[in-house]
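Need tokens for this chain, all 149 residues.
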Amino acid sequence: MMRRKTRMVTVLVVVAAGYVYRFTDWIVPPRIQVDVTTRPVRGGLPEGAVLTPVFMLDREAPLTSIRVVAVSNVPPGVLGKVAWQVTRPPGREPVRGFLFDDSLPGAMVVSKAQPLVPGGVYRVDVAAGRLRGQRDFVARAASDTAPAE
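Here are the structure tokens for all 149 residues:
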């Protein structure tokens, strides 16, 4: 009789743990939502130059790591390579947004910013302690935004 009760309690605990894992966010680490837009923020751009990506976060976060990696639509030598990476020590002031190749206060450059390939797909990964976020974006050339006549 005791064996049957133990088995029943074990099954109940496994089912409850499965429910918590599958249908709640208790176990999943919190996420940062990253939005990417492109703007001509650095003066007049030559023909074919890439617009500067602007990264916005859904909340202020004390970022500790930013990394941009080429993921597709780029030359084979660039694919999978880090286009830009910086780290910051924990405890720095939170930020809500930043530019590609921006110098954040207290940031240490791990990998200098490489020129982005127009039409290339890149992934930005950000971290702030346990918070993580990522977003894929396309590097747009300045000529892609010219008004059609």
